[in-house]
Design brief:
The protein has 73 residues and is of the alpha+beta class. It is 26% helix and 21% strand.
Amino acid sequence: MTDPKAELYAYDLSAATWRKASASAGENNCVEIAELPGGARAVRDSKKPERVPLRFAASEWAAFRAGVLAGEL
């Protein structure tokens, strides 16, 4: 059985397109997000892009986003 998280972390991010939140106003104190296959996302610290990004399955990302929009986080 294949581990879905292992597949996310095996995905090559060298050609990923990273974007910052529009609210960052050009500052480097925020996170950057890259879209992965299947609706998954990778997230990294804009101040330390060399660190290994966190990766979230589509369902995890949707739950996180819903929590933020609902003011739970």
